[in-house]
Design goal:
By secondary structure, this protein is mainly alpha-helical. 84% of the residues lie in helices and 0% in strands. The longest helix has 43 residues.
Length: 140
């Protein structure tokens, strides 16, 4: 039968290990939180309002696509062509908007020398019209 001293020592050792693990986890959470705060601060200070608006629309498109997919999986996909049209519309519009963002970003000026912001927006509008024409026709 083990002595109470050895059992007590094992319990203290386990408690110390758990405490060390908890402390490490808290440090990692603090470092991650600090990194996220630094990222958000830099984003708010250096990103123009035009790019923030485009980023907001990108987040909306992503959330809309996720909600459509979740609805299809959890509830029903009865008019499957409607789900495909809506989801494809979200994905296609996301791609077009991401392309617009990369073209109007001043930091990418060297890459898109020939493309003015007005031309990029015109391409975006034309691509959106064509995309939604196909989506509308896919609905039947």
């Amino acid at each position: 039968m083990p002595s109470s001293k050895s059992t007590s020592a094992k319990q203290k050792s386990a408690a110390n290990a758990a405490s060390a693990t908890t402390h490490q986890a808290q440090q990692q959470v603090a470092q991650t939180s600090n990194a996220v705060q630094t990222l958000l601060k830099a984003y708010n200070e250096t990103t123009s309002s035009r790019l923030k608006l485009i980023d907001t629309f990108l987040v909306f498109l992503m959330l809309s696509g996720v909600m459509q997919f979740a609805y299809c999986v959890l509830v029903t996909n009865f008019p499957f062509n409607a789900f495909l049209a809506g989801f494809s519309s979200c994905v296609g519009q996301f791609v077009l908007t991401a392309s617009l963002r990369s073209q109007v970003n001043p930091e990418n000026g060297a890459v898109f020398k020939e493309v003015s912001p007005e031309r990029a927006f015109a391409d975006f509008v034309l691509g959106s019209i064509v995309l939604h024409f196909f989506v509308y026709n896919f609905l039947g």
